[in-house]
Amino acid sequence: MTFEQQWIEYDYNPFVLFNINGKIVSLNSEAQFLLGSTTANELFDLAKAYANITFGFKTTFVDLEFGRYKFFGITVGYENENQIGIKLYQAPSFKLKTPKLDGQLTNIFTLIDLCISTNSINSDIEYVKEYDPTIPDIIINSNKLIKILNKIYSCFEDNDSIHTKVFYRVGEHIRFEDKKYSLFSIRVSAESLNKARINELKVMAESSSFYVDIKKDLTLNIPMITS
C-alpha cells in the first residue's frame, strides 16, 4: 500500500469507489463501518444524485444521517463513465468526552432491571425485555447511566407497554485513547413518545457524556470498554 493509499485507508471520512453498475470497487476502513448502518445501493444513488453534470469533482454541503453517523457534506468525482467515487465528511456527533475511564466494571443488565423495577412501581405498564446475553460487563458510571435510563423511561410513561432491547451494533466502533471499542445499544421503544421531555433528556445526555439517538424510539449507544 502506497503512502497515498494509506491516507485514504485511515481517513476519518468514509470513501467508496463504485463501478458503472454500482458494485464497490474499493473502500476505506471507515466506509466499511458505515455500511453497517446503510447499504451500498443507497450510497451509489447518493453519488449519482450529487455528481457533477460533466466529468470532474463536486462538493456539496448537505446534512445526512445513517444510524449514529452524521455528515455535513460530500464530494463526488468521476473521470470517465466506468467509475464514480464518493467521500462523506463526518460531523463529530458521538465521542467520549471523559479524559479518563469513569466508573467500575458493571453488569449492564442489572442496571437496566433496576431501572425497570423502579419505574414499574405503582404502574400498570408492561415492560418487555430483549437482551443479548453475550454482552460482557463493562466499565461505566452506574449512577449516571441509571439517571439517564430513568429519564428515557419517563419519556414513555403514557404507554401500556415499553420494549427494551440490548444488542451489539455490528460493524460500528468508537476510538478512545488510541484504541477501538465495539458498541452496543440500549433501545427503548413504545407506541408513543412524550416529546415534552425530550429536551430534558438531551440536556442530561450532554452533561453525562452519553449519546442518545432520538427518533420514534430512544437508543443509548455505549462503548464496550471492559478493562
The average pLDDT score comes to: 87
| Major beta sheet summary | 5 strands, antiparallel
Strand order of the largest sheet: 2-1-5-4-3
Tell me the CATH topology of the largest domain. Heat Shock Protein 90
Low-confidence stretches: none
Series of H and E elements: HEEHHEEEEHEEHEEHEE
- How many individual domains? 2
Q: How far from one another are the termini?
A: 33 Å
- Which structural class best describes the helix and strand composition? alpha+beta
Strand elements, count: 12
What does this entry look like structurally?
The structure is a single chain. The chain is α+β, with helices and mostly antiparallel strands and 227 residues long. The chain folds into two domains: 3-90, PAS domain (Beta-Lactamase, 2-Layer Sandwich); 104-223, Histidine kinase-like ATPase, C-terminal domain (Heat Shock Protein 90, 2-Layer Sandwich), CATH 3.30.565.10. It is 26% helix and 38% strand. The protein has helices at residues 3-9, 29-34, 40-49, 108-120, 142-154, 198-208; strands at 15-19, 24-27, 56-66, 69-78, 83-90, 104-106, 126-131, 138-140, 161-176, 179-189, 211-214, 218-223. The protein has a five-stranded antiparallel β-sheet. Strands 7-9-10-12-11 form a five-stranded mixed β-sheet. A two-stranded antiparallel sheet has the order 6-8. A hairpin with a 4-residue loop joins β4 and β5. α5 (142-154) runs antiparallel to α6. The longest helix is centred in the middle third of the chain and has 13 residues, at 108-120. It is elongated. 22% of the residues are buried. The model has no long low-confidence stretch (mean pLDDT 87).
